[in-house]
């Protein structure tokens, strides 16, 4: 086992405060680094990850041995495990981020005032990002690279089961920073497994951390949202709805509903509730339920659906608030678009919802009145993803309304400032 | 005196929670109100304020009598006092907001994906804004109108000395909402003078409040920033710097420096520190100091400035961190643009800074490396204002980096969502 820093709560607080200070110091030079320098660093990181494959696999072997001893669940071991192909994937992910447009310095608005002042709104880095994630070693590279691309310093706190793997990957990233002449502290990995480190990050480390991004399951996100004293980009859950209107093309509705639910059931953009227009109960309901059943999906039916199909399993009140993340869907009949909007308003997690309709007035009302980060018309909820949006890479999806909403990519990891060009103007 | 709700801490908490619930409920219909409806409401509010002049003045007379009895400072009485002209100004301010472009529904970005999905990023209201301000009755109307324009419900908590005046103005605003068929709870005024009401707002009222905007002095903002459990748009202070480079046009520098410091000394965009390029000590320093002195400004000089002008009052270390809001300026000689950037990095409040230079490379470095909300080249810091930026009206200026930065106008009081238009796409 690699050397572990000996700690108690006091020294953890000190270690974390020091990490915060160093991140803040590194954020200055990083914020003004040229796009070329950042690209050079990222490409060097990708090369280093490949060159360091043996070291990374050796560190990963320690984590896997510990996981075995701790009798970690198979699914957790699987996401912890690295191999040549996965390491190549990590390097490729960094390269993809390297090739994105640099967001820093981009002019996002410009106008001239009657007095001749020329005002520009220009993207700037946010500063220091804290990323808290579970034992997925690849997130160390993804999150580190994405934050650096946007000119931010980053403090990474990965799950304790992956600490050795994450350290090895982190060492490769730091080599890339060094090769480009960027401060090594721009990407720091919390070196202790103690949970008190997370608590310290959530305080903001005396103002050093500008935003926290939790990546992981509901309990991690819930803790971060409850305790954080700094802004958080996150979604607690993705309780996504699909509404199938009477005007929907049936074949399209079937293929989208099955895709939205079953393509991958464990992702936040998977549909959890199907709302069918009551006026389509005789035409659309049965084919949709059959298609879902054929695809292997369990159906939990509302009282109105049960009246039509009494053999189905009934949905309880709890079902409407449940993110199954599994091959289960709750199904209700609603009173047209108004009923769909009312149901979604009551139960939605404000992540992603879709409407299937040929009637454009129905889609328009859905788009106007449903208040979720992502709304889709005649497309699958599983498109709720930064890559699918063309953002290149994402650090997560946010359901809050402040600053970032929807997929959080490099642009969402920036702020902005105003540059005003004058020719001697004074204010009268 | 008007009827005051009898309260203790428990009932205040209950009253405030109820206000939060009602604001949240009102925010729904307001968010989907048409631009025409909101404009109609705002114009009706302006008319109502004018029509209600007698009632508003009568209520203001009670506040003024109470203020006299409480021996309130003259400056506080002045900002509390209303007259026909000031009421006309309030109505005019609401009309200006009515005429702004409606931000809600504006498409701020749009692109198409290779699979044909058309993605739009569209402005949406934020939800519920809490505004906490001092005893300035006009803010009741300004803040109420601005929030409604952006489709938000608002909870107004004005200073206790202006409670009667604010109530009378609030009644006029509610008449305007009613005339347009918008929910009366879209603009609520906290009906109790107790400070516990502020504490309740800062908790977010069980998730009802999306953002808090404090308008007032440093102690109010500091309390809000320290205690708020919801996002805050604010600036604690405006410690604005002007750097005069060796390459500066001297006449331009004199006029901008005097304007930046002396036009109005009490506003957040007033300059507090003048940094002069050491290389210009022999050419620019004396004329700048003379111009400031002639304009009635007291000078507090750094050690290097004192060497050249030993008769000046010396600046202490504290001066560099002091927002005078008065006819006083601290002056230092710095080692060119690098020295200016280092000084600003150390002492700035990240509000507004200006560079006076003919050398465009100097301006470019200043623009790139200084991390404040507003940077100006060859123009006065007193342009740091939403109206001067062409935003029509502002609720304040923010120095945070999240969501809103710089002047906070109607656009900054919005969020956004993604609308994705498909033709049956499923994710492979």
From TrEMBL, chains A, B:
GO terms for cellular component: cytoplasm. Its EC number is 1.2.1.41. HAMAP family: ProA. Residues 17-291 form the Aldehyde dehydrogenase domain. Keywords: Amino-acid biosynthesis, Cytoplasm, NADP, Oxidoreductase, Proline biosynthesis. It comes from Georhizobium profundi. It is found in: Cytoplasm. InterPro entries: Ald_DH/histidinol_DH, Ald_DH_C, Ald_DH_N, Aldehyde_DH_dom, G-glutamylP_reductase_CS, Glu-5-SA_DH, GPR_dom. It comes from the Bacteria. Pathway: Amino-acid biosynthesis; L-proline biosynthesis; L-glutamate 5-semialdehyde from L-glutamate: step 2/2. This is Gamma-glutamyl phosphate reductase.
